[in-house]
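Quick one: structure for this chain?
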Amino acid sequence: MGGRAETFVIVNYGAARARSAWAEVRAALDGAGVAFEAHEARAFGDARAAATGALDAGCRTVAVVGGDGTLGEVISGFFARGGAGEVGAGENRDEDDLATAAPVAINPAAALAILPGGTGNDFARALEGRRATLAHWLARLVAHCRRDEDGGGSATTRAVDVLRGAVADVGGGGAREFLCLNAVTLGVGAEVAARVAAQGRRVRGLPGEARFALAALGALAGWRERRVRIRVDDGEPFESATNLIAIVNSRFAGGGMMFSPDARIDDGLADLVTASKLTRAVVVREMTRIHRGGHINNPRVRVRRGSRVTIEPLTPDDALPVEADGDVRGQTPLSISVMPRALRIVV
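Got it. Here's what it folds into:
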């Protein structure tokens, strides 16, 4: 890197607890003698561009102080389309381009380090199976940087799957492509994400689970099931009346909700969770069980697995909003494919 540090830290000042976390991160890295450079992202797209610039310059570790949304944005900066140009989160593409121009890692040896500072921090929770402190993740990063200097950094990383998606642009601008690390939700899940993002300063001070619960109550007020056609891999398409769909790469999403308790981040498959023909009252009841995974015992909740998923509305009025890693991306139709073990994570 021409004498530059091989560890690059991206801080999302818009994340719930990133500012206070950044002070702890900086002190810990300085105290451990880890050489690093830092960038404070203040607008959407800024973190992605910073990650791409660092990787192009030869950086081997990109650490993220933020939440799941920041992780989702930063991983877009880890990939280029067919070796030319980064994959832009929310970038418009036509269907032929989406089918042929698969993302390629800018630096396959580089790793992403998670330093939780967001609302849900669900992907970090999935990696550990529990909530772990920022100090825990800092210790992992310091150990990785030291091993990396000695040439053994691969021993402190894990290869995980990445979800590649495309949705309809609400403004009619064609397909919008994105990369996702944790989960994609449709319908009520996407409305909840939008409500969490719009919450005021007073509510932002609450724990992540409480913020998501408040947003869910508001989203359920307008509950109405939509008719969609779903296809998994090369199977026969099937129709469903639903307002609650999740396509997950890991066990947790939405502030600790366990949509698919058996989901794995490195099996090359996405878990499709659908819930159909539910009343508002039943949805509220299942919301209380979803943190333990108990909702999958409901016969109207199904989990299917595949490497490709497509979801289409039967009519324009049946279109569902789509969010990925906490950010609203557009609406159905949606296509998802799995990029198996495409990204290295510091663990």
